[in-house]
Amino acid sequence: MALIVHKYGGTSMGSVERIKNVARRVAKWHKAGHKMVVVPSAMSGETNRLLGLAREITANPDPRELDMIASTGEQVSVGLLAIALHAEGLEAVSYAGWQVPIKTDSAFTKARISDIDGTRVLADLDAGKVVVITGFQGVDPEGHIATLGRGGSDTSAVAIAAAMKADECLIYTDVDGVYTTDPRVVEEARRLDRVTFEEMLEMASLGSKVLQIRSVEFAGKYQVKTRVLSSLTDPMIPLETEMRSGTLITFEEDETMEKAVISGIAFQRDEARIAVMGVPDKPGIAYQILGPVADANIDIDMIIQNTSVDGKTDFTFTVGRGDYARAMEILTNQVKEHVKAEQVRGDPKVSKVSVVGVGMRSHVGIASTMFRTLAEEGINIQMISTSEIKISVLIDEKYTELAVRALHKVFELDRA
Amino acid sequence: MALIVHKYGGTSMGSVERIKNVARRVAKWHKAGHKMVVVPSAMSGETNRLLGLAREITANPDPRELDMIASTGEQVSVGLLAIALHAEGLEAVSYAGWQVPIKTDSAFTKARISDIDGTRVLADLDAGKVVVITGFQGVDPEGHIATLGRGGSDTSAVAIAAAMKADECLIYTDVDGVYTTDPRVVEEARRLDRVTFEEMLEMASLGSKVLQIRSVEFAGKYQVKTRVLSSLTDPMIPLETEMRSGTLITFEEDETMEKAVISGIAFQRDEARIAVMGVPDKPGIAYQILGPVADANIDIDMIIQNTSVDGKTDFTFTVGRGDYARAMEILTNQVKEHVKAEQVRGDPKVSKVSVVGVGMRSHVGIASTMFRTLAEEGINIQMISTSEIKISVLIDEKYTELAVRALHKVFELDRA
């Protein structure tokens, strides 16, 4: 008998019929003897509907009140799912985040979980109940409701699994696992049976949208065995089949994994590149350039500073395309003169392509294979950034698919 | 500077535009120097939508989970109203019942408020904030959300006003006050400027739907000055005009009130009458007859037991028409033989018409005027029940309008 956490996305909770299917699936697990905690998202479209009402009133609604409003979507979901579980003959009880409690900081609309008290939930599980807990939200030290931001229910589920010392956290979604790359771009993309936590972390940060990155961080920090699998299967498929489906995020590099040098090709379109050129190279210059951009709440991704020539340097970085115009405006009007830059140049149409794999650590030549492959396709590399287990390059956006397909092929990701 | 509680119904909160109007009205009061607490209902239709989802899953959803679901409607309303108040340039904060906290018992879907801790709300008011609190709900001793039942937001508002020792509680609704009778039945019906708490209590219990009866009980118990007024007026009408509009529920019978013998004619259609006839008259017989009916959760209204003749008596009572068939079935199949009744007879088409007024206490002849008037119209009285300030009669339903109009005229309710 294990303690299992299930998480279901908004599509899986999208209608009364689908909620009943979720209940059937959970009942199957419960009847097999497992203690079950379920974390559903809001019904698909509901969070957007609620935020839309708030934005109809004013363009910049107060974040604290937005969380008050948006958190109700999950509260409706847990109540409906509990009722559907009753209809399956199970004892079930639902809790909002504040009732558990799931404690967060006070960064409304993007709060972070600080602590979860599992006492109440454990008592219910010991009494044979299925416990249904709202995703996406918790309660701050002042007793205000705070939400975790988009995709936050993944994080809720993994954090609850960590707090309850669950045996496994199953993230049910509308894809059947983590792929070597996006199957819509590369037909031969293959589902991975396993992926390490570090690879998953890189994939999430590099634009693979399967899991919210903070949920992966939680899984890593607390070593939560996490599986991504499909909610679109027949809810009554045999438990043994379901337990081995999808992609498992692991914490040990086992034998089979060492054989795979590269696990996947991630990519992120909608990037923009900005270069501040001919800047006097002196201490504090990076902060003087990036500080005003960060102050405007613009996320900065890759950063490169060239070796200085004649006491001057070029400073290049990327931002999301949606922030491009605002970042250019800040740099041109506020920063350029202040740092005595010669010019500010930008390209709003770039994308980032990355190869990811723990095998990289013990293999040389990955970078050279990657660069050679792109060169053979005539693709110019604009920026490079690397970590222990990934190499990312910035390229012209129009070559994204070509690059991804070529790299998928050269690293033999289509072969099991 | 006074402390004022406003309550707005679902129609007043029915759209973003209407919510903005509520905010404008509240802002007008706040700018006049008053400390403001606002209790909005869910947007019209929302509670029904939510309960509908639950009933799509199963015919008899768990009440605890229903409350989890239904309470979200008001939570959305308070967030939206707080945002609309911000847009009016006010500081405002919203709270769900559990955040205040508003403490209730655990009778889910029909909970009663046991205590309200006003500390947090008072601190916000002292800081110049408008405080927006969910109606309809609170939190039980175990930390579960419990709702107060249909119309519960009236009760929330009056209870909050009592706990905060508010100077006045204004119930904004889609009628402009309490009338001498239903204006849809009697064209000459007149709005009352004042009505005593006791009269209001009788009116509410006799079918006048302006306020939930428990809100009137609260107003009486804690002597909350409560005013019923229209939310359909221009939100920017002068405060002085608005403060004198609607109907005030008072606790003292002032001079003007003594002059009015009768304040209103209330009526309740959809009643049904049941008679258990020829029952041996012995101790405990009332309980033996009504116990099984009450056990089936059927509310019993008027009850009459005739003087016994030859050791036998007739036992007559009324129930809501929706419960008539079930009550008849219980009496015929379970009770009749057990209590050795000769027969069980029923009439599902009766209505109750009542005259209400504190002036009745010091005036004789009200009952005879009422009975004479009905006799002159050829209306047979089936049952009579009286209290200190009301006389109710049961009549054939088809005479309802005729009776109400005749009584409205004879007691001169059309004259100010």
Could you explain the architecture of this structure?
Two copies of one chain form a homodimer. Chain A has 416 residues and is α/β, with parallel strands linked by helices. In chain A, 50% of the residues are buried. An eight-stranded mixed beta sheet of chain A has the order 3-6-2-1-9-11-12-10, sandwiched between helices. The first copy, chain A, has a six-stranded antiparallel beta sheet with strand order 14-15-13-16-18-17. In chain A, strands 4-5 form a two-stranded antiparallel ribbon. In chain A, helix 7 (197-205) packs antiparallel against helix 8 and helix 13 packs across helix 14 (400-410). In chain A, 36% of the residues lie in helices and 26% in strands. At the A-B interface, helix 1, helix 2, helix 3 and helix 4 of A face helix 1, helix 2, helix 3 and helix 4 of B. Chains A, B: It catalyses: L-aspartate + ATP = 4-phospho-L-aspartate + ADP.
Query: Quick one: how many beta strands of chain A?
Result: 18
Q: What Rg of chain A do the Cα atoms give?
A: 23 Å
- Low-pLDDT regions of chain A: none
CATH class of the largest domain in chain A reads Alpha Beta
Sheet/helix structural class of chain A: alpha/beta
* Strand order of the biggest β-sheet of chain A: 3-6-2-1-9-11-12-10
Number of helices of chain A: 14
Oligomer: homodimer
